[in-house]
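call fold target=Divalent-cation tolerance protein CutA
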Amino acid sequence: MSGSGLIAALTTVSKREQAEALAHHLVEQGLAACVQLQAIESVYRWQGAVQQEPEWRLLIKSTQARWAELQAAVLAQHPYALPALVAWPLPEGNAPFQDWVRAETGS
């Protein structure tokens, strides 16, 4: 990842309480500047059958420098047997926002 050094990461959990707990942990530990929570509906194949379930999506704003720690924290607390956690670089962004994310994550 390159550019601004900022990343957006995404994962999902099944319950609002799980999403809130994970979001608070990431922000309190300085691993994320912000985590947005959104109720969604997911359709996926699991163990040979198509499933449809409500989930909570977490959009995590952080930095490349904190990625390894963020990944470890999410995977350690994630309730799923096979959690999806993906991240992508944010090559552009307004300077005050970038500065804020870096300040909040100590990056």
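return ok
The longest helix spans residues 16-28. The helical segments are 16-28, 67-77, 95-105.
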